[in-house]
Input
Amino acid sequence: MLSPLDHLTQLLGKLPGLGPRSARRVVLFLLKKRESLMLPLIAALRDVADSVQACSVCGNWDVQSPCTVCRDVSRDSSTICVVEDVADLWALERSRAFKGRYHVLGGTLSALGGVRPSDLHIDDLLTRVRDDDVQEVILALSVTVEGQTTAHYVSERLASLGVSITRLAHGLPVGGELDYLDDGTLTAALQARRKAE
Output
């Protein structure tokens, strides 16, 4: 059986960007800052675990459903921006360049990873487009093989619904992921979007 220190180190080591050695350093740092950091962090983690949920409309994370973005009546409901995951939605929101609605797919298609269309929220997107008088769907998916495959599949599924389908354009490097791009690059990509092929 693992000691509490080893168990915490093992769990932290599963986080993105943290290996076993980095996780050990984090544990030691937290122990030194028990009152000022560790205990507030525990409370914050518990609060997030208890109160945050996926939005029933778009898939964003929030303390309420529908989320703050979906409930904002000033947003353009005729345009939906489709993203892979919530990190991409947050990146686009950070840029303040998009004033429409979002739809989180929950990943990308991957034959090797075993991710099929039924594993993603594609049918929910089609329902929203049909029911909510959507005029444009922006496919803001990463410029990776999986992202491009997913964009092509979603475009084909949307084709019969008579909606304009656009893609992000300049500024996105091939192989790039939205969450790692700066605000200016995201703004340029949104403003220069083009028709999906």
